[in-house]
Amino acid sequence: MNWESIKDLAESRPRLAAAVGLVSLFGAGIGAVSNGVNFIDIVGGKAQQEKVAKATAEVREAKAIEAVATQAKASATAQAEAQAWTAALQTNTVAAYDFYLRAFPDGYFKAQAEAARSRLASATRESGAPPFDLGRLHPTVATAVSAARDAAKEAAAKQTQAERASNMALAAATQARAHARGYDVIRFRDRDTYEGEVAGGKPNGLGVYLQGDPHLSGDKFQGQVVAGAWSGVGIFESASGAPGRPARYGGEFTGGQLAGMGVIMRSDGLRQAGAVVNGALTGHGVETRPDGQRFEGEFKNGMPEGFGALWASDGKVVEAGRYEQGRLVQPLSL
After folding, report:
1. Dihedral over alpha carbons 230, 236, 238, 239 (to 10 degrees)
2. CA-CA 20 to 30 A from 233: which of 48, 84, 117, 145?
3. Which residues span the domain enclosing 70?
């Protein structure tokens, strides 16, 4: 009896029809196995669907996490690019724009950087590279040097004001010795002497301080005084050679201290101009040495500390980078 005959017979016999159906299902399973499909998966389709759904959810979650990470990375990159572009604009040199373009070859400001670089390069070719050119420096160093030059200019302006105040203080001292109204000569217990303008019996205005301490003999201040303390602008000169005291300082004073923007001259001929704290260059400034070399950058307690550059007298770079206690510890170049 063939298969078709069995099917015909099953139509008239329900129990046999059920058996035929079971055999057909089993046959399908065997066919599935022969085609590489696990028959158990067919029978347990619901469990398999749950596994697939779970795996799909995990994939979606992983993709979501990856998307967040990608977005965060893009944000960090954009921030770094913005900082690099700001530094390039502030420095405004061929080297600075080259640095930006190397770091961000497809950056948002690519066109502007290329145009600025081309303009500066053209100007340099026409005039030749000048001495002490910021374009010779690494962008980080160039930024510090640029700030140092600005600080030195401000210090020089304060020194000019201090010179005028000093001359006026000398005139006030003359008035004090002549016993003019509003002027006086005051001798203190510490042997210091003040000659100049007074208010309420105390030094106030413009005047001259002469220090009488044997260790500080010959040191003097000429300039502005507030409530007995050196405050404002003036000139300090030291003949004692006491440690920590410059031979001459012209600039700002605060509460009797050499503090603010000013110019320091040492007895060996070294000149420092910039931000001063407690009588020492601290912050941005420029140091000109007796041999003609020049250091521009950051200082702490009178020594290079931070980023800066040392130039030869002809304007060529001797060394540049990051300094600690006056020593170059991290060279930086283009």
Report:
1. -110
2. 145
3. 46-127
